[in-house]
Amino acid sequence: MLIASLRKELLLQWRTRSQFMAVFVFGAATLLLFSFGVGPNAEMLRTFSSGFLWLGLLMSSTLTLSESFHGEMENRALEGLLLLPSDPRALYYGKAIANWLQLTLLGCALVPVMVVLYDAGTTQLLKLLLIIALGAAGLSAPGTLYAAMTAQVRAKQTLLPLLLFPLIVPALLASVKATSLVILGDPMQQSRSWIALLGAFDLIYWSLCGLLYGRVVEE
Amino acid sequence: MKTAWIFVVLGVAFLVAGSYLGLFVAPAEEYMGNVQRIMYVHVPTAWNWMLAVLYAFGAAIAFLFTANAKWDARLEAGLEVSTLLAFLLCCQGSIWAKPTWGVWWDWDPRLTSVAVLLFASIGIIALRGFVDDPHRRAVWSAVATIIASVDLPIVYYSVKWWNSLHQQQSSPQTVSSQFHLPLRLNAFGVLFLMIGFIMLRTRVANMNRARETALPPMTEHAGEIA
Fold it and tell me: Which one, A15, A95, B201, B213, has the greatest CB density within 10 A?
């Protein structure tokens, strides 16, 4: 059931891939704008690059997450899905995994933009990929749950960030810290503990949100 | 209803007594001077804020298990009172921080966690405002409250880790006995006031709910129109 749900989400994402491009351009544009907030100070931009990358990804993620439930609200598709003899948790994990993959891809696509704009490169690409994947998982688990709520109410554009942003503070903090250690050098080997914190955050929210999702979409 | 007002009156009385002792009787602290006196309201607010958050968390869990609308009313009251207390905490903390540390804000784990939870609870209250169906509103805000409460310890420890510069908490042993009485009086004052507010707010929430779910009034000619 989970496989079928995931397949449906991925197929949907593939068919709306122009949407992904638009979100990517939005993220790249925010990265460009952040540098105007700091000024043309190359040293400072490099120091803050990881923070800008994650804020850019966070802003873009609200678009991705709310869009992922947009289709379900048309023609009351969500109700139809819930009528299927299946566990709503499969629907949640299918959507959350699809959102996670898309956000990870988006994060990876934003890295070259960051390298070019802020001169913040690294050779530890695998570690960077791991951090982006874990950070994206931290955004996607509570984000998918909140998107399921906010997609059904008025003022969804305002409510999703209002609910999501305070919640993901620990994930954001750990991702930024770990990424900046990868980019700026890690003499004390601290990035390991930040990655562990991210992993713990992901574990807690992937299990808790899956548990609560059934109550959110019930009729 | 009557009990709620008794709690409010008791709370105000305790606060007046405690604040009088704290402002005029207790000696000024050696290093911080008179600025320290804000602790007589700040610390009680902090304690009771934690109680209010726990209460809202408990009400959210109880609602998900029982689906009883009474718990939703309690959740609404607990949420709003904890938001008020968190806002007061941030203001009092800033007022204290400016003369002591020279800045309005400091990225101390406790300060930051309160601010994060303040925004989270404002978000949940906003969510409640936008959902028209009472049952759905209750379930969603219970779910959001649980998720936000679980976040609190994670925020606290991650910020602590992120910014290891912070003030150590005072234990009763490090606080001189002359400071005890006003602190305790105010702690009970805020506690009673909080209980009174939560009771009154729960009553309002119950009344709103009854009005929402009530059938439209029957008119004399209702049958004829049909």
Answer: A95
